[in-house]
Fold this protein.
Amino acid sequence: MPHSRSLLRVARRLSSDRFSAEDIVQEALLRAWRSFDQFRAGTNARAWLFRIMINAFYEQGRRSQAGSVVMPLDEAPEAQQRPAGGLALPEATAISRALDALSVEHRAVLLLGVVEGFTCREMAEILSVPIGTVMSRLSRARQALRDQLEPVAAGPVFAKEAVR
Amino acid sequence: MNCREINELLPLHSCGELDPARAVDFAAHLCECPKCGDLVRRQEYYDARLREIVFSDDESTGGDAAADRVNQKVRLEIASSRVTSFPSISSPASSSFTSSGARRLAAAVMGIAALLVFAMLGYHGLFSTHVARVYADAAQDHQLEVVEQQPRPWLTDPEKIALLGTRVGVPESAVLTLAPPNYHLVRGKICLLDGYAFLHLVFSDGTPSDGTPSGGAHEFSLYLRPRGVGQLPRASQHVAQATDGTTIGECGVGSDHVAAFETPRLTVLLVTDQSAEAGSALAGAISSDL
């Protein structure tokens, strides 16, 4: 299953913990297997898998909100390991925190477009939204990321020159 | 092209989707407008850093191992499902495959599909007999939690384990009276098999003092739940009779052997990576204890 790692990479950044992410990707791969007859030869298999994974993620979110998820009794959700904030945060931590602080919709387009390299047209199919929506989400997500980082960038870690 | 248009088209530019004519106008504006040029440079910088950070985080948090874990679970799940034929791929041209070229294309597509299915199932998935979901789940859980020793919050004190069992309806006395020959209880936790909560007990014939198996020690898993909470599926490949008359169903899942039986109070599954005979003997001994 060559795409499971990239599916997991995105799922981990979208969901609250790694166990949920693994469940989501497992569910997505099984759904892909079951509905393999719906895959159209010649279309983008990777985008098709990501679409299934994103749907599984949203469905899991709805089930969690409804309180119907059966949690193993011995496994509390993984604690969020977020370093304390501050102007002197290392750059990687600052960017990671800024990404986590974005809405799910904004995080999704950044992860799909910037990290995984999908085009706006492919993201529109994956997210089942018009391409114009993808473009505006991508612009707003990048703006929100910059808004969070640029006050930090003015500090000692992000010299202005670093972004030139 | 003005600054507003640059802002609107920036997502298409960064994804490489601008048509050639607009790409030229876009580049020309960036040369003339320092503000837009700066915006694009900052965006490209943050995009590059974001990619680097997410990939580096994936490496440092064991992304490869997690993918292997998920793939293994998926293979086991598929192996335990009722697969009667290869799924087919629907093609926009499937209804009009009349030319030999189209037929060759269809054959090639189906061949690729079959290879993909083979890769997804793996050798064991294709050639193993169907086993019910609860047995496949038990074997998978044993592989992940006991053989691979995934980090989980286990309880090691038998009395606390017995108390934990009451949370899923397993009487404390059932846990405390279990004494398979040469084995001792080393840890326990709750798990879900086929959607049902089971008390998962791990027994070892290794050194009991430190709770971890010594070199060459054998461990097996025992899953308990109250009888009557869902019927135990009859998907066993062999049926044996314990000395106390209990009927024990057995099946193989991958390299594991699963033995299952019911007492008047409990449904019991035993999973071991030892021989089927050893698993059967252990199940017989445990049925006598229960």
Q: What stands out?
A: The longest helix of chain A spans residues 131-153.
